[in-house]
Specification:
Ferrochelatase_C; binds ligand L6N33NVT; Rossmann fold; Ferrochelatase; 13% strand; binds fe (ii) ion; four-stranded parallel beta sheet; 342 residues; metal-binding; alpha/beta; globular
Length: 342
Amino acid sequence: MTATKRGIVLMNLGSPDSTRVKDVRRYLNEFLMDERVIDMPWLGRLLLVKGIIVPFRAPKSAHAYSTIWTAAGSPLMVLSKQLQEALQQQVTEPVALAMRYGAPAPWTAYDELLEKMPGLEEVVLVPLYPHYAMSSYETAVEYAKEAHVKGKYAFKLTVIPPYYDNTLYLDALAASMKPYLQQPYDHFLFSYHGVPERHIHKGDITGNHCLKVNNCCEVSSEAHKQCYRHQCLVTTKKVAALLEIPAQKYSFSFQSRLGRDEWLKPYTAQRLAELPTEGVKNLLVACPAFVSDCLETLEEIAEQGKETFMQAGGESFTMIPCLNVHPMWVKAIASWVKDNEK
Ligand SMILES: C=CC1=C(C)c2cc3[nH]c(cc4nc(cc5[nH]c(cc1n2)c(C)c5CCC(=O)O)C(CCC(=O)O)=C4C)c(C)c3C=C
Ligand SMILES: [Fe+2]
Ligand SMILES: [Fe+2]
C-alpha cells in the first residue's frame, strides 16, 4: 500500500502587516466585517464597523501593537512561523501556515503545499484554536473550506476538531505552566478571550441549554460540542487537576470585550481589580484560548492587566506564556496528524 501524499496547514488568526494606522485599519475592517465576529446584517455591520469602531479603534490598536511588535513582525506571526518550523522538524509531511485575516491566505498555503508535493491527496488543517467559537475556530475552518471549494483543489481537506479536552494538549499545557507554580502564589487566573453571550445562544444546537439551564456548562448536553464557555471550563478544570491546584486557588474569566453587549462573565479586567481586595496579592495568569502569544496576551494582560492588578494592591503578577513552540505541543500536533493516517 502506498502512503497518502499528505500536507499540513496550521491556521491562526492573523495580524496587521505593520503597526501603521492604515494597516491596522485594513486588518480591523477585514476582521470585524466577518459576520461570525460581528453578527449583524451587512448594512448595520458596515455602518458600525467602518463608521464607528474602526475609526476610533485603529489608532489605539496601532499604538498597542507598537508596544509588542518585534523586528521580525507581530508576535503572533513570528510565533506561528516558529511553530511551523518546529513541526516541520518532527514530520515528513510539508507544513504550511495560513491566517484567517490577512496573509498568508489558505489558498496560498494550499498552493505552497502543492508546489512542494505535486499530486497532494490530503491536507490536514490544524486550527490554532483549542476551543470552538463561531468567531475563532468556526470562521477559520469555514474560510479554509471555502478556499478549498473555490480553488477546486483535488486533495481532500481534513479538519482537526477542537482539542480543549485532548490529553496531549492538556498535558502540554500543564507542563508549560508547571515551572511557574514553583514560586509562591495566592491564585491562578485562567483568562480566556471573551465572546458576546449572544454567540453562545446562537451556537446552542439544542436551542434551550446554554446560559438557560442552571450551571449549564456543568450539566451534560449535546450543546457542549459548540459551547465555548463549557470548553473553557473543561480546559481549566482538567489543567488545574493535572497541576493539583486546589479548587479555591483558581478561577476563570473572559477578556478583550468590545462594545456594549453582554459578554461572557466574569470580565478579566474587573477580576484583576477585585482580586487584591479579596486577599490575592501574588497572581499567576495564563491565557489558554491562545496557543501563540499575541496582542491579547502580551499587551492586554501582561501590560494593561498587570497595571490594573498592581494598582489595586497586588504585589506580584506573573504571566505564563502560551504554548508557542513548547516541545510537547509540537509533538501533540504531530501525533494528531499521524493518528489521522489510520
Ligand atoms: C466582536 C469582537 C471580537 C470577538 C467576538 C473576538 C473573538 C475572538 N478573538 C480571538 C483571538 C484573537 N483576537 C485578537 C485580536 C482582536 N480581537 C478583536 C475582536 C474580537 N475577537 C479585535 C478587534 C482584535 C484586534 C486587536 C484589537 O483592536 O483589540 C487576537 C490577536 C491578534 C494579534 O495580531 O496579535 C487573537 C489571537 C478568539 C480566540 C476569539 C474567540 C474565542
Ligand atoms: Fe479577538
Ligand atoms: Fe454552557
